[in-house]
User: Fold these one by one.
Assistant:
Number 1:
Amino acid sequence: MLATRALRLIGKRAISTSVCVRGGHGVAKVEDYTLPAYFDKREEPLPDICYVQTLSPEQKSLKEKEMGSWASLSNDEKIALYRISFKESFAEMNHPTSEWKSVVAGMFFLIGFTGFVVLWQRKYVYGAVPHTFDPEYKAKELQRMLDMRINPVEGFSANWDYENKQWKK
Amino acid sequence: MSLQKPLMRGMLGKRLRFHLPIAFSLSLLAAIAFKYAVTEPRKQAYADFYKQYDATKEFNAMREAGIFESVRPSEE
């Protein structure tokens, strides 16, 4: 614990290089996924670590130059410094993909497939429909609804001509 | 390269000042349209129906059709 605190003063990745001694059993291996990672996220504009961890010699000299006055940096050098710290710019990271086309295509395909499933179900799974769906039974239902004057003002029976025993034109 | 300072504040207020009057007026319009397209014709339809309504005649017609259980059709 004290060793990690002391080493923290040395470098950015101090935590990774610190030694964690576990009760005489040896060094615990530090997994990659436990360390801070780089993510391009619109909601978190400053990731935990820089994108480029191991700098090439030119990048190292650029970083030295960055310690001085920034006015002396050319535009290309500024862009190079940006690319050391970040992988994609906001414009690149937010650029729309065509993924939605695949999603919609998949949706339609699966809905179509569901249609086949439903047809098969109607043929092989469901039993016969009740006798109340027979045409004669339905005709009797209709006559009874008209006799009862269902919705005579604006609805059902309003469309029936009781004098001439037919639907109103 | 000096950019213009971006909009820092007042965005919600600006959006509300633009959208709220539109929202209120469209809602009011919808309510007025519904009143004059649906409720007024419906009230008129009911008024017209009951102007010429003879309850006894309708009752006897229904009775003859045989839908009541308390009064059966007047069998001769």
Number 2:
Amino acid sequence: MTKNCHNDYKMKFSLEEEYPDLSQHNNHMAKALTKEIYEKLRSKSTPSGFTLDDIIQTGVDNPGHPFIMTVGCVAGDEESYEVFKDLLDPVISDRHGGYKPTDKHNTDLNWENLKGGDDLDPNYVQSSRVRTGRSLKGYTLPPHNSRGERRAVEKLSIEAMTSLDGEFKGKYYPLKDMTEKEQDQLIADHFLFDKPVSPLLLASGMARDWPDARGIYHNDNKTFLVWVNEEDHLRVISMQKGGNMKEVFKRFCVGLQKIEDVFKKHNHGFMWNEHLGFILTCPSNLGTGLRGGVHVKLPKLSTHPKFEEILTRLRLQKRGTGGVDTASVGGVFDISNADRLGSSEVQQVQLVVDGVKLMIEMEKKLEKGESIDDMIPAQK
Amino acid sequence: MASNFARILSSKRNVGILSLVGAGSLSVGFFLTREQYVSAGAQVRRLYPASADYPDLRKHNNCMASHLTPALYAKLCDKATPNGFTLDQAIQTGVDNPGHPFIKTVGMVAGDEESYEVFADLFDPVIKERHNGYNARIMKHPTDLESSKIRGGQFDDNYVLSSRVRTGRSIRGLSLPPACTRAERRDVERVVISALAGLKGNLAGKYYSLTEMTEKEQQQLIDDHFLFDKPVSPLLTCAGMARDWPDARGIWHNNEKTFLVWVNEEDHTRVISMEKGGNMKRVFERFCRGLQEVEHLIQEKGWEFMWNEHLGYILTCPSNLGTGLRAGVHIKLPRLSKDPRFPKILDNLRLQKRGTGGVDTAAVGSTFDISNLDRLGQSEVQLVQTVIDGVNYLIECEKRLEKGQDIKIPAPISQFK
């Protein structure tokens, strides 16, 4: 097998010679990787041929990110998380609040368990969104897959999505056949994924063969979307304008269940295990893979000295409205759950709902010139 | 590390080196045919039939896409070089970059010296298209670094701002930038800077490792046109050449800043001679002398450059095979560049224009980078002479246009002299 052949060739060089220079680096991989671990794992590869250097390449090439501490490693297939656990377990632990190799992850996609969430103030909350990723068992992941595999994932996904009806009924748009105009429109509407320019993605090989077998499915209402073959096999998104997060989450759970049934029929159900939950390309998305959030106007609160601390205590994170690599524009922030692994979908969305509600109250107080010191929450 | 006999295979100056190795192992190396290379290389286990993995090249316009048929893909897709470099890796850059606005790109790279053999069925037609019909199976490439053969070569400084000659060299036995491991890349760095440390006189200089250079030093070198770009061009990044940046990358230059060596950018080494003004003759003289000294210093340590009699110097991109030489000037041609006959004139003179920022850029104002189009099938001396004669002609045209006189499109000069 190619990768093993190249890896065998590489073994002729010493550990010292091959070990990456991480002296300028600040990402989870660089923190966790030691020469001992590298030595232990460098001769290994997964059955499909993914190796340690493949795992860490993105972290070697991208020493650090100004807005967010990056993970710096990716999985090439389901087995990566087993074969390279000596590196990935400490990375997972560091990224996911001390999650231990023996911990079990709880999956809960019963939308009825969510309390409230249907009434976030639309004067502040511009839009609500929940996304997750899913990987199809039996295929390798975007950093590693061949064109044939990627196309097989697309084909199966199209079948699953075109079987949807009711509010989920829609259409699949392969990126290859989309016009530039359609594409720009979908990006502007926050529907489409970026053309891959982020070096975080490029360095791991996820953008190979673009735009082959990439595409987007959305329902006629444009409230349920599926991205195919971007950073993961599937990214499933439920979204709408305004603050009714409950409705967004319901649609999310129901839609996911429907498409999972189709994949299972073909023996390509979702990659999942009781320790790591849903298996995705980036270790940061393990567990629920869920990012539930809102675009919310917090011009005063966001400049308050305690803003970061409030977010941390609420277990939330902020991003710019253009996505993970961007800064905020005009006091509008993307606020979402920080956690992925170790708590369930329902729990994470609950944190968003409760936390955003509180922050809007704070914003209103600040508008009136009042203090928010007695509103600062305890650590959740 | 490649075995001894492979390293000395097809060396041009092999008399002294032959004595290093026993005749028995030598003969095995000499007679490896292409078929043996291919079968000696690794086999790639594929999960899908070739047809499922064949890239979609319908929107593509590069040399690789022009020649990679489904049948050819099927033939080569399960092969790999002895170090494990595959067809998919070779063509990835061409799949990811359908076409370039300023120039028809090659769309594939070599990962090691053996790539050109194992994947010859694809490389050969690409080489043929890129190098004006050059038949790599049959034709022989002339190498000539005797700079005394150059005639003329001192341009009018009113037009020519600077003169430059560059080439690349690969160290035999180590994989090329798309495929090299960190250890191999560091080996290249070690071998090269050890050799460069032996240069003397007006070639004596110093090495600046990219990992230790300050941002300020780096920017200054870029502005002086001395340093290579941080890899942002997708043509390079998609081929994997930018992995582990800036590990084992650096620049060596002599104290006068007229002779430079880039280490581990698109090739193992890029060797550059340059200076302000129009003295191309002196630039080329220094170029040849420096190259020959570096080669000598490397050989003293038992290394050599990748070279064979069909492809000349082996480099990462097929476009740089042969001489790997680009000799050019930065030249002001305000009138001629606006003349509609300009492209045809350049074409007939076997010259190309680029922006002054390098291959991926557009011209600024009316200052152009003018250099030779060809690399393979003609020697270094021949190509530099072509540039000298051509640039002189362009200056003549510009002068005539200044005086309101008319200009003529020259007859096309022949290739493969």
